[in-house]
Amino acid sequence: MATRRTVAKTPATKLFVLDTNVLMHDPTSLFRFEEHDIYVPIMTLEELDDNKKGMSEVARNARQASRSLDEIVSSSEDGIAQGIELDGPSRGLATGRLFLQAEAIGIRLPDGLPTGRGDNQILGVILHLSERTPKRQVILVSKDINMRIKARALGLEAQDYFNDKVLEDADLLYTGARELDQAFWESHAKGMESWKEEGRAYYRLTGPAAGEMLVNEFVYQDGEQSLQARITDAGGASFTLESLIDYSHQKNSVWGITARNREQNFALNLLMNPEIDFVTLLGQAGTGKTLLTLAAGLTQVLDAKRYAEIIMTRVTVPVGEDIGFLPGTEEEKMTPWMGALEDNLDVLNGSTGEGGDWGRAATQDLIRSRIKIKSLNFMRGRTFINKFLIIDEAQNLTPKQMKTLITRAGPGTKVVCLGNIAQIDTPYLTEGSSGLTYVVDRFKGWSHSGHVTLQRGERSRLADHAADVL
């Protein structure tokens, strides 16, 4: 319990009261408040207990939070009333104290707020703490928007839990490409080295932009002397540009598909590069993410024999009402979720050239034999060797699920994550805390990964107009 004596010692530290949904969202949140103290009401423990049953992610997190609390309480020798030091249990991550509600608190709430509800009981505890320690900031931390609104209506401070957010604003997310201004060459061309290697042109430049450049970032310049290049070496006083393969030209088509815009050309340069093991493609509906990825996968599986097969998976989050249990094998159960795969295979099968109906049917059978559809539920413990792994609708994954999936990659496997962070269907995930945002931010600048945000829709004029105006 936070006492007046404790507050007098540390007036600068705040007291954060945790709502249950914060612990269920991130069980490690107990160690994320640095030098500040945290307070867990008895109602929060009750709600954790109610939510611990089952195999869902929320139930797992509730059990993990309970285990963490047990370890912290067990490590204390001084008892709960004075607060438990978090320095030891958190291994130096947090230096504050954990307070558990160790006494009955008379809940006094304004008329109209029923005291039987768990949320309102937590608000009553915060009111009590605010009155008891007037010189100390007492702040509610909750993922529940309505809970925060009620707290502010009662004159209490309330915050969202921000620690899991990679970015505050999705507009700041790394796009994988940057435009060079007209003055770029004046400030960077002095002492430029250039050479050719295996049909590619290379330019080593020095200048003020060297510190900002990231490996595998694309640069472009429009105008009379247009340029599209990839940065292959960065991090010092100089950086190296490599010219790209022009996949917009028919002679470089990938499974009959050519790039229709600059970003699609960047994406194909990443997807077809054997040195790049991890690719993330972001973009709204109709920008060609799945089509480009499947075309690159089929070319490298069937023509180049670089990978043994394509494995495709996605999160099964329904947009409307769930359709219930589905009959059949794992692959048959996943089929209704794989409409995007079927649609894109129809396009790719139509672009393979001559051969008539028989030829197309044979090609279709060959293609389908090399594409496996897997459910995310059975991924833990797997190791994929020499596979082309596509994770579709990756914006619906949490950072923890994303880590579980990407660490399945064995030798010779390429992982491609596709998604649109404006279309998140998973509850509690936002653009800032999505697993897709997380990996884009964490992998930028690694020499074996690349990212492109596709800007222009190429599906149809109707789809493009709908995306703009609706």
Describe the structure.
The model is unreliable at 1-10 and 318-322 (pLDDT under 50). It is built from 15 helices and 18 strands. The protein has helices spanning 4-9, 20-25, 42-50, 57-75, 118-132, 145-153, 184-188, 262-271, 289-303, 330-334, 339-350, 356-369, 399-406, 435-443, 461-469, and strands spanning 15-18, 37-40, 84-85, 97-100, 138-141, 157-159, 177-179, 193-197, 200-206, 218-221, 227-233, 238-243, 278-283, 309-314, 371-373, 387-392, 414-419, 449-454. The protein is of the alpha/beta class and 470 residues long. It has 3 domains: 4-159, Rossmann fold (3-Layer(aba) Sandwich); 170-243, no CATH class; 253-469, Rossmann fold (3-Layer(aba) Sandwich), CATH 3.40.50. The strands form 3 sheets. The protein has a 6-stranded mixed beta sheet with strand order 3-4-2-1-5-6, sandwiched between helices. It has a 6-stranded mixed beta sheet with strand order 7-10-11-12-9-8, covered by helices on one side.
- Per CATH, the architecture of the largest domain is 3-Layer(aba) Sandwich
* Largest β sheet strand count, sense and barrel closure: 6 strands, mixed
CATH superfamily (homologous) name of the largest domain: P-loop containing nucleotide triphosphate hydrolases
Number of domains: 3
Q: Terminal Cα separation, in Å?
A: 52 Å
Roughly what percent helix? 25-40%
Structural class: alpha/beta
Q: What best-fitting shape do the alpha-carbon axes yield?
A: globular
Uncertain segments are 1-10, 318-322
